[in-house]
């Protein structure tokens, strides 16, 4: 792992020294170091902001993990432009021969995640150095937030790569990969600390965008379900099903969060297209989100949501045409028609989740705007369907929003944990032991979509409901994996429209064998393996 690079970046950012020579020869006389900086609660608060900033940047130089999860599930294809590289197709087909040069596709993610972890580790390690006075509660709160963020980051890494270096202190060492059990044990430990020490303030009095007791408890249940499902274990580092149910019940019953009435209002593009009022980024359904701004620019100040711009529709000459309310993007994760058809016509989530070029008349509007016949040829694996929830937007004059830098400054927050997920996790955990309550929880989500209440449910019903409820949010792939790699592989292949697997090139089909060979994990960046001197080992299947 490139720990030395992460350390250097952190030091240079703090000291702002002008050259390598000065860095090596000048004594530190006035600049603060990590040893001298952490003195006051204000210092700790500033460092905590840096931890959240690290979270904000994790997808800005690699592949957005929710986007990867949509592509590798049975929801979407790789997409992107017809003249782009084939990295997204390689992910979609679990086949490195599709794009042999993309051996370090996730390197930006690897570096950004470990840089963010470095910030969290530093703050956690320095909490005891701060002069808190009588404000010991703030010490526990700051540490709880930093541990929540560290757990969040490691949970992504362990699901992406399985065996990753487990680093809990700032270090320059070349750290080998840990067993997944060790990493999950650290995640559970961090989340339990966060749940026990973060305030139990209910919505709407929470500080939006900050980790809370409720977010930690919901994450504990999410981690439990994935780990025990994928690895076939009864508990996760001693955290049992009863523990998970108690945590998720606490969020459901005591957090103050709830469902918004109209599902469409959760999503800005869907709200604009339907002509309803957007519920806003801090609505009562959002338990935890990654906050973004629209202030980025092309000088390296990238603050936007990269997931959003990648999923924007790519139609017209050069793929650069916006049609209200949808601004153009890079055309990744084109939607498989089978996902569109999985929704009933009466399900409000279909319109809110997927943009249908034909059903919304966008092909006709394009012809009217440009005077040219509509074409989807600029988008590889064009299907006529795009993800809508995080679509970039334009105004009524088809000017992209929020500004001319919109391709790097998408301000829409990523909703990582919604109350609907809490309800469906509760239903899953209750199934078989408290089936009456499981049905109640399930139906709160199901009927909100405009569907008739179910009279009984199975685990398959819950999994299908999760697919429809969270389509386009980066959750489906993990739900498939936690049912076992064989189930995941056969489901992905069965639910994929074969005719869209190639755009006239030699791209091979998705196969059960390829998915099973990788066990669902990603290719560790070859550059990182080289930098580690071979300490890091590549995952099977890649």
UniProtKB/TrEMBL annotation:
<keyword id="KW-0472">Membrane</keyword>
<dbReference type="GO" id="GO:0009279">
    <property type="term" value="C:cell outer membrane"/>
</dbReference>
<dbReference type="Pfam" id="PF07980">
    <property type="entry name" value="SusD_RagB"/>
</dbReference>
<dbReference type="Pfam" id="PF14322">
    <property type="entry name" value="SusD-like_3"/>
</dbReference>
<dbReference type="InterPro" id="IPR012944">
    <property type="entry name" value="SusD_RagB_dom"/>
</dbReference>
<feature type="signal peptide">
    <location>
        <begin position="1"/>
        <end position="24"/>
    </location>
</feature>
<keyword id="KW-0998">Cell outer membrane</keyword>
<dbReference type="InterPro" id="IPR011990">
    <property type="entry name" value="TPR-like_helical_dom_sf"/>
</dbReference>
<dbReference type="InterPro" id="IPR033985">
    <property type="entry name" value="SusD-like_N"/>
</dbReference>
<keyword id="KW-0732">Signal</keyword>
<feature type="domain" description="SusD-like N-terminal">
    <location>
        <begin position="96"/>
        <end position="225"/>
    </location>
</feature>
<protein>
    <recommendedName>
        <fullName>RagB/SusD family nutrient uptake outer membrane protein</fullName>
    </recommendedName>
</protein>
<comment type="similarity">
    <text>Belongs to the SusD family.</text>
</comment>
<feature type="domain" description="RagB/SusD">
    <location>
        <begin position="354"/>
        <end position="542"/>
    </location>
</feature>
